[in-house]
Amino acid sequence: MFSIPIEKLYENGFTTKILGHGIGLYNAKEILNKYPVVMHFTECKDSCFTQELLIPQS
After folding, report:
1. Rounded to whole angstroms, how far apart are CA atoms 22 and 15?
2. Contact 24/17 with Cβ under 8 angstroms?
């Protein structure tokens, strides 16, 4: 098991993957910042990350 602060996952260039494949969460954060009504949650339990998006109906 490993422990990584969740906020670190969203830093540009940070990755836990081999060969640097890991900029997706940074990109997702940048896109989601343009939509303040969308809520984005990240959870880590037993070294498994869960992403949840809540998009309100218009």
Report:
1. 5
2. no
For the full predicted model, state whether its pTM sits above 0.70.
no
Q: What is the pLDDT along the chain (58 residues), one digit of tens a residue?
A: 566 778 888 888 888 777 767 677 888 899 999 999 999 998 888 878 888 999 999 7
CA quadruple 3, 10, 28, 18: dihedral sign = negative
Report whether 2 contacts 46 (CB < 8 A). Answer: no
Which residues, listed in sequence order, are joined to residue 39 by a DSSP beta bridge? Answer: 54
Which residues lie closer than 8 Å to 15 by C-beta, 6 or more apart?
21, 22, 23
Hey, what are 7's tokens? 């906020």
Q: To which H or E segment does residue 26 belong?
A: helix 24-32
